[in-house]
Amino acid sequence: MKAKTVNNFLFEMAIEAVDIKDVVTKDLINQYLGDDFVLDLFCYSFSNENNLDYTKLQEDEEFKQSKEFRNWVIYEIECKFHETRDKFKYEIIDGNEITIWRKMKVEKNWLKHLEKQGNRLGIYWSWDPDVAEPHWGYDIKGKEKEIMIESSIGIEYINWIETLRVNMHPLYEDEKEIRLFKNTPLKIIAIYDQNSYENGVEMKISSQIKNKIFKA
Asked: Mind listing the pLDDT tens digit for each residue in 30-53?
């Protein structure tokens, strides 16, 4: 896989350049197999596929440590990789860009701060506005206002390895996350007040914000 380094932070990457070996690593497989909840999900799927008793299989530690089961899990993870990558390529990516959304809890004067000083919007976004949730951070005192930011990003600036991993994972795939590289350049398309872009109100933002280049 080829990648380009910019300012020691940003790596340009096309989704076609992401090889399965970059995503489905030995460490990732061990992470799946080391998570009891995820392991139970795989046991459930395996038992259904092979008409076995799930309860007995779940309690069979010897089988869960077997090469047969490990190879089956690897196969399932690899299938999920191809399914997830194809979903992005054929359903989510629009041309060479993806519309992305970030919900945040902010202070009342956040918009003024954004116009004058703020330049960071964060690396955690979603490709589906209906599931975007605020990233609380450690200091939420005074952050009573909930807003949604709409932006658009070229696909070469997305951290595809981490994005594919989180969208493949049975515990996190519902978050529909887009993971950006640090320092990715971003422009704000719109900001919505209230809980959702659908029933919320688009906030009026100044030309200074609309024309400003922010960073992830």
From this structure: 999 999 999 999 999 999 999 999
